[in-house]
Amino acid sequence: MLPIYYVGQVCAVAAWIMLLISYHAKRENKVIFLQIISSVLYIINYYCVGATAGLWISIFELIKSIGYYKTDKDKYIFYFTLPIYLAILCFIGFDAVSLLAVLGSVVDGYVMLKSKRTMVVGGIVSYALWVVYDLCFFDFANAVSDMFIVVSNVSILVRGYNKYLHRSNIYTVKSLRISMSTVHEIDKLDRKALDGEYRWDEETIKELTKDHKYSYILVKDENKVIGYVNFLNLKEDVYEKMLNSYDLYDDFAKEDIAEFTKNRKAYLNLNAIVLNDDYFNSDTIYKIENAIKRYIRTMRKNRYYIQELCCFAVSPLEFRVLEDLKFEKVRDITNECCIYRKII
């Protein structure tokens, strides 16, 4: 074997280690940084072993992953990838070995939009195809790491353990605007997590938040929305009215919402913090709290000057997050609802 082959094997091992480390990183930026390094090492690996399809797919997967992290357009991104994969096949030639790699990537992208059980089964199929592809180029380091994922997913299916599946893959996204598919996901989360008294219907969600910038931090597991934080930028008089209310105040009209404007004071209602119960653990809560702190810092850095935030806490998750973030308790509204405030 030529020395370049051994360089490729070392890069494959290093890429796998980087990927594993990224799953345990606390900060979203560090997760993305480590996974970018891992992707670059995989690109070098496939170049060194002469696997052209793996090389071009790895380059494209790197670009695609950044899109998944930075937007909520997961379905659109997946469907956009299909002609790209076809173009890659046309460029390198329609041979059976290259087709294995393309099918592996397409299956992996498709199942990420589905349920957890489908993700596990799809992962077995996808990585099994990659194992065969890797072995065709004697890429044993990659084949071993892919086989490890196949065996892990089979083990998960056999044991029926899926409550915290991909727990370490959770990350947060500050979404500029949200799509209708995300509105549906938010509504489904609300139905499961909130009493009807505290839940908005989809029309209210769309009217008050869908077309307003910076209304949401989305919490995602791979490409699935598993929670969110919702901010309402209120006009100052509406904010004061809510802050002084002795009842739960969430009957907002479209006219009550202000757009973020640079160099202007902003008064935010942290309207809801919602999370799928399966992910209620310290790791996820830590990421949500960090995302809120980062949201405030970034907005002020970009000259959107948040003066105050207030929140009606109605769930154990909201009580915990607000207490951890040192919000000041203003008053009890009911036995199960309190209003909190934080002055920046």
What are its keywords?
alpha+beta; 344 residues; 12 helices; Aminopeptidase
What's the topology here?
Blueprint: H1 3-22, H2 28-49, H3 52-70, H4 74-92, H5 96-111, H6 116-136, H7 140-159, E1 170-175, H8 180-193, H9 202-210, E2 216-221, E3 224-234, H10 236-243, E4 265-275, H11 282-301, E5 305-313, H12 316-324, E6 328-334, E7 337-343
What is the spatial order of strands in the main beta sheet? 1-2-3-4-5-7-6
Number of strands: 7
Q: What is the CATH architecture term of the largest domain?
A: 3-Layer(aba) Sandwich
CATH-defined fold name of the largest domain = Aminopeptidase
The SS-based structural class is alpha+beta
Query: How would you sum up the major sheet?
Result: 7 strands, mixed
Report on this model:
With 344 residues, the chain is of the alpha+beta class. It has two domains: 3-159, no CATH class; 170-343, Gcn5-related N-acetyltransferase (GNAT) (Aminopeptidase), CATH 3.40.630. 57% of the residues lie in helices and 17% in strands. Strands 1-2-3-4-5-7-6 form a seven-stranded mixed β-sheet, with helices on both faces. A hairpin with a 2-residue loop joins strand 2 (216-221) and strand 3 (224-234). The N and C termini lie far apart (62 Å). Residues 161-166 have low confidence and may be disordered.
Quick rundown:
The protein is an alpha+beta fold and 344 residues long.
